[in-house]
């Protein structure tokens, strides 16, 4: 070991001499311990400043230990031995709390590499050319789950006011948006295959589910399957998106092509795909698609290309990319293509071969920096062709969100929504006022895009729109987002790999989980004004008023005494550990307005407080008017005295008197006898007192 002490330039060196040697070691900085994997079947714990002997020895392995690694958060230790036995140790008590074996490959001679991803609870162990993955199950007692397995997609049915969700276990669940409770569930919809995506038709009476088994099924809302669309031709494929149009159903996700089905030809249960006239225009897998009436179709791929199609002719005519734009003449044209700059004339740029452009784009995006995960048209923006603003939003690789003008084929703006988390997904409401983005760490951000990129500009805009809210409703990556209007409120529905579905209000009230024990009630609350120069200030004031109303009605929603287990920066939202009392959340966050950070406490300065109304007279309860009646101490209870029992003769006499068994003469004679006895006894006493 070597370390540099303060105010000294030289390194201080120490060494450990361990009998028989070790295979590996790990260091715990908080506990200041070193764990060694010994050849002598022991795991030793060392203090770096005490080199003479270990401070603890962990016994239990029957073969040499080849790998050790600390579980820093729980102060535990993993150890793996040559006989393929994994042990988990409690460091403080130096006891083995778990032993795992018989789950690893049967190879005899192997080289092992050991890595524990503590952030996600995944343990990787390599055996030559094989890799074993052990995932830790989350503690179900500390959070509420909506599904038993990871949720893959969430939709909102505005007609029935229901939320529809799917998971990797091929289960579909229906939830009430007003209370968050499950009303029905379909299991085994695609056998054991994962449901990767879903879609509703225009009337919201049919549900389409896409699975990894290569099929798309058409269901009614009672669980009856009407058609099976054979997308993968009896093979397993990765279906990423289903787009339901008036006359066609488009399915994308693999093989760089679009698979088309025409509902007017659905005369059988099993349906085969038809030919897409546009052919293949992408150089990588298609991940998403979007449609804008009357005929504009866009598709986004893994390499960052967005292809514009004419849905009527099924021909592609343009390619958008953050680094270049390209004009497509026809599907069969393999000649030179013109490279167009953003908003510039085609004649001012050199020509490149299409294959060369594809190779360049692939080389530029080998790490998924530009992958297009979601595409959304901003349909609520009227007269966008005259003003020249953005009408298409894309997001994906590296956490960027981009705004495009599809009429002028120009990239107007891009900003970093989530940094250092890889690809993101998004969703927008019908009025295109809000944009919700979610990342791989469970963070959700809500942006105000109502007045963002309304006009075209020669220079690309890099400033982000106003951030309304940033919360973490999930513990794992967010797989699907959907925005809806319910109960007069704008909600963001999010599905995650942590098996939960959450409803997050744009206004800032606590997050709710579908399936929680406590029912929630959606209350009508006024929305944020559409046009206001001081938009963020109004949002702060409105958020504060709504939170005050909520807390006065239900104070148990927040519990400030709890401490977050998943803290990150200044934002944290987590479910409470107490499940039987309903789901509670703790939320602490700052509100951003430009570059200035305003603390949430400053929002109370703008509250308008009027004169207090006089309270009416309240009748006092009876226990306050007459406290002695309700609270006085009762008299001490006296011990009951045991009565003297009457003599046997009196008892018999009473009995026979009641039944008239003795004649009157006998009773008179008895009285006379008693009287004579008394007179005789008195005479005897008198004679004794007289002198002789």
Automatic annotation (TrEMBL):
InterPro entries: WD-EF-hand_domain (IPR051242), WD40/YVTN_repeat-like_dom_sf (IPR015943), WD40_PAC1 (IPR020472), WD40_repeat_CS (IPR019775), WD40_repeat_dom_sf (IPR036322), WD40_rpt (IPR001680). WD repeats lie at residues 58-99, 144-185, 195-222, 279-319. Keywords: Repeat, WD repeat. The keyword Chloroplast does not apply. Pfam families: WD40 (PF00400). This is WD repeat domain 49. The gene is WDR49. The keyword Iron does not apply. PANTHER family: WD REPEAT-CONTAINING PROTEIN 49, WD40 REPEAT DOMAIN 95. It comes from Bos taurus (Bovine).
């Amino acid at each position: 070991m070597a370390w540099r002490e303060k105010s000294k330039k030289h390194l201080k060196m120490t060494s450990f001499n361990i009998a028989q040697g070790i295979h590996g070691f790990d260091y715990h900085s908080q506990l200041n311990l070193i764990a060694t994997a010994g050849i002598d079947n022991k795991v030793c714990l060392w203090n770096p400043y005490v080199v003479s002997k270990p401070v603890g020895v962990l016994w239990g392995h029957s073969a040499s230990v080849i790998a050790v690694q600390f579980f820093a958060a729980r102060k535990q230790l993993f150890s793996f031995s040559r006989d393929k036995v994994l042990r988990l140790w409690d460091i403080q008590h130096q006891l083995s709390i778990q032993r795992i074996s018989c789950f690893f490959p049967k190879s005899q001679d192997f080289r092992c590499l050991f890595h524990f991803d503590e952030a996600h609870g995944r343990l990787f162990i390599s055996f030559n050319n094989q890799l074993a993955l052990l995932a830790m199950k989350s503690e179900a007692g500390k959070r509420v789950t909506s599904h038993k397995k990871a949720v893959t997609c969430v939709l909102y049915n505005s007609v029935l006011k229901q939320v529809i969700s799917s998971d990797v276990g091929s289960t579909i669940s229906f939830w009430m948006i007003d209370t968050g409770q499950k009303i029905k569930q379909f299991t085994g919809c695609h056998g054991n295959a994962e449901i990767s995506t879903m879609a509703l038709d225009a009337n919201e009476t049919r549900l389409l589910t896409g699975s990894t088994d290569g099929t798309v099924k058409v269901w009614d809302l009672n669980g009856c399957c009407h058609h099976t669309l054979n997308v993968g031709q009896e093979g397993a494929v990765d279906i990423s998106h289903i787009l339901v149009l008036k006359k066609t159903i488009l399915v994308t996700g693999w093989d760089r092509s679009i698979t088309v089905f025409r509902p007017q030809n659905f005369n059988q249960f099993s349906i085969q795909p038809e030919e897409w006239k546009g052919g293949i225009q992408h150089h990588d897998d298609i991940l998403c698609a979007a449609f804008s009436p009357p005929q504009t179709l866009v598709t986004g791929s893994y390499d960052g290309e967005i292809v514009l199609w004419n849905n009527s002719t099924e021909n592609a005519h343009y390619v958008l990319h953050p680094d270049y734009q390209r004009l497509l003449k026809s599907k069969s044209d393999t000649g030179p293509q013109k490279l167009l700059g953003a908003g510039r004339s085609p004649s001012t740029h050199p020509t490149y071969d299409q294959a060369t452009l594809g190779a360049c784009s692939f080389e530029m995006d080998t790490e998924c920096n530009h992958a297009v995960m979601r595409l959304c048209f901003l349909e609520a923006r009227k007269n966008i062709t005259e003003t020249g603003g953005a009408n298409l939003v894309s997001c994906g690789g590296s956490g960027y969100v981009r705004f495009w003008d599809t009429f002028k084929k120009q990239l107007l703006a891009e900003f970093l929504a989530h940094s250092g988390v890889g690809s993101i997904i998004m969703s927008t409401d019908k009025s295109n006022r809000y944009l919700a983005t979610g990342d791989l760490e469970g963070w959700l951000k809500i942006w105000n895009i109502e007045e963002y990129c309304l006009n075209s500009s020669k220079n690309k805009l890099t400033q982000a729109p106003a951030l309304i809210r940033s919360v973490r409703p999930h513990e794992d990556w967010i797989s699907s987002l959907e925005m809806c209007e319910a109960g007069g409120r704008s909600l963001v529905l999010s599905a995650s790999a942590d098996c939960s579905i959450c409803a997050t209000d744009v206004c800032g009230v606590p997050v709710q989980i579908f399936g929680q024990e406590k029912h929630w009630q959606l209350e009508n609350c006024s929305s944020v004004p559409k046009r206001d120069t001081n938009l963020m200030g109004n949002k702060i004031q409105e958020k504060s008023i709504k939170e005050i109303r909520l807390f006065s009605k239900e104070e148990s929603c927040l519990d400030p005494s709890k401490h977050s287990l998943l803290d990150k920066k200044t934002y944290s939202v987590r479910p409470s550990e107490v499940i039987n009392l309903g789901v509670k959340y703790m939320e602490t966050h700052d509100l951003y307005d430009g570059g200035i950070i305003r603390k949430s406490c400053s929002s109370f300065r703008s509250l308008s407080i009027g004169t207090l109304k006089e309270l009416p007279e309240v009748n006092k309860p009876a226990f306050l008017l007459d406290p002695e009646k309700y609270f006085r101490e009762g008299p001490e209870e006296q011990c009951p005295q045991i009565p003297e029992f009457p003599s046997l003769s009196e008892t018999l006499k009473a009995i026979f008197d009641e039944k008239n068994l003795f004649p009157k003469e006998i009773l008179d004679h008895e009285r006379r006898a008693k009287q004579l006895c008394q007179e005789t006894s008195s005479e005897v006493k008198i004679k004794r007192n007289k002198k002789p």
